Every structure is written in C-alpha cells, then in structure tokens.
Amino acid sequence: MTYLIEGTLTVEEKPEKYMHTFVDFKLVEEIRAGSISTERRCVIASSERVARWLNKKGYNLQWNDDLERAVEVCGQEKIEVSETKLITPRNGWGDYLTQKFGKTEDMMTLEGELTVWSETRLPIPWLYVFSSGKLRDVFVFDGDRFMVEPKVTHKGSKYTYGVLLDIPILKLNSCQTRGNINTTRY
Asked: What are phi and psi of 176, to 5 degrees?
C-alpha cells in the first residue's frame, strides 16, 4: 500500500533564520498599468568576509541582532505539498503530519489542509501507469497541530492514468486524474 499526502499550506519563515547574520532586505513595489506587484529581495551571509565583499558589489548587508527587524523580514507563502509514504506512521497520521509539516527547521505552518490517500500503484510505487486510491482522511491545521475536523466525514476516490515517476529527488509525470470527495457535516 502506498500513501499520498496532498494539499496546500500557508507557511511563514521563522525569524531565527535572520538573527545573528548579515542581512540586506529590500521590498520593491512596482506599479504598472494600475496593478501593484511586490517583490521581496533578501540576501543573507553568515560570514563577515562575504558580507564585505557583497557590500563592495553594491549590496548593503548589516549585522542583525534585532528580533523586530527579523520578524519584519519574514515572509508568508502558499506551498503545494505532494509526498509519497510507503508505510503507515506508528503514532498516527495527525502526529506525523504535525511533525513533518507543522514546524520545520526554518518554516512554520499557519494554516492549511492535507488529504491522505491510500493508493494501489501498478506496476510499482515509484514508477507507475495506473493508480487507484481511496481517501483516508482530511487533516486541517488548527493552531499548532494537524487534526481531523470534529463532526465531519470525508469519503472519496480517485484514479490516475499515465506515466509517473515519483522518487524523492525527481518527480515527473504525464497523467490524468479523475476523482471526487464527498463531505458530510453533522
């Protein structure tokens, strides 16, 4: 049995990433034809020697000890999650998802939803042309952990046809997926 974890998460960088390093942070806003585009540019160097060299090239790296500045620099973004797991976690899916996606080394999850599918992939889990899956559950991030919503039941199935290569260092696919999820609230 192969398990597929899919979903979208809103994550934020941890301020510790920008503490006790040399940082040059710029927020550039451009106005074109009535629309505003915002671009974040951040250069980080842990070595004073590298920071001096970059400053000679036109950057403005400065030593950062200020937590407020580090919090200002932190950015939020939406990320897509698609991960394959071959065995069921010993402590359960909620604990596994919280450990894996709740707080990482330099990111923390603010909100999001992940679905766990149990799939049968043919011919092998890493290179397959057909997959049929059943929805195990939908996990919602609530404050500090992933959990199943109370008084909500999800049922679903999906079928994938095409050629898929799914290994940790490379994911290639040319496929079509059909599926549905039915949600019942009490």
From this structure: -125, 140
